[in-house]
Amino acid sequence: MPLLKPAIAVIGKKKTGKTTVVEKLVKKLVSEGFNVSTLKHTIETFDIDYVGTDSYRHRQAGAVFVALQGRLRSAIIVEKEISFEKLLEYASLFGDVIVLEGFSKLTLRDPRIGKIICVKDEAEKEEYREAVNVLCYSVNGALDIEKVVLWLKEQVKVFNIYRKTPMIDCKLCGYGSCYEFSKAVAGNLEYIEKCPMMNVRVYVDGKGIPLTRYPASIIRNVTMAMLSTLKGVGSLEGKMVKIYVE
Ligand code: SF4
């Protein structure tokens, strides 16, 4: 799943104070200067506009997508489920960080997403033993907020690097994933040049062409695959390849 901004999932059973924790966290992050996006998982059907409003009438008439544009606020109502990936993409457009309420199945084992787990008592913690990257447990809405903010600030540095990687987890750098590699670079334990996928440069008439991660990885993979079949080339790992085309 593509993730472009640091994210924290607040997970837990019903009535364990998840929304209280999200509220506290968002207020704190906003006071620290972050733009915060939140996502909440909810029941199958719900309403956020009122009977008789223009948008309500648009929906009643059968529109599948209704957008409201105001000078200070906009809203989009879609009459179908939007994928989690798409929601993360929208959230990344507006927020420096993303706070999720719910979505535990999608986030529990994702090491990139910090977890705050809301529980009623100590015994309930045991039910989340598979959770990866647990920042803290929250009992009755209590929260180690400074620890969470500190983690998020570090993640901002990690994600500034992670977004430049192809996010394909090819492991050629010796790390298990692009995220792990980015953490090492952010912590000054590794050099960004060690990722061969980020070392793809294309020049046309001497002018550098900006490449996003997908074209860069395609160019690299196709070039490596073709050249390595040529007689006398041998292994290309760690070597510089220049191709001139006229
Ligand atoms: S070599 Fe680059 S693309 Fe491959 S896992 Fe490492 S950082 Fe990601």
Describe this entry's structure for a reader.
The protein has 246 residues and is an alpha/beta fold. The chain folds into 2 domains: 7-160, P-loop containing nucleotide triphosphate hydrolases (Rossmann fold); 164-246, no CATH class. It is built from 7 helices and 9 strands, in the order βαβαββαβαββααββα. A hairpin with a 4-residue loop joins strand 3 (65-69) and strand 4 (74-78). The protein is globular. The chain starts with 6 loop residues before the first strand and ends in an 18-residue tail after the last helix. 25% of the residues are buried. The mean pLDDT is 90. Iron/sulfur cluster binds at residues 165-166, 168-173, 175, 177-178, 181, 195-197.
Give me some keywords for this one.
alpha/beta, 2 domains, five-stranded parallel beta sheet, two-stranded antiparallel sheet, 7 helices, 32% helix, binds iron/sulfur cluster
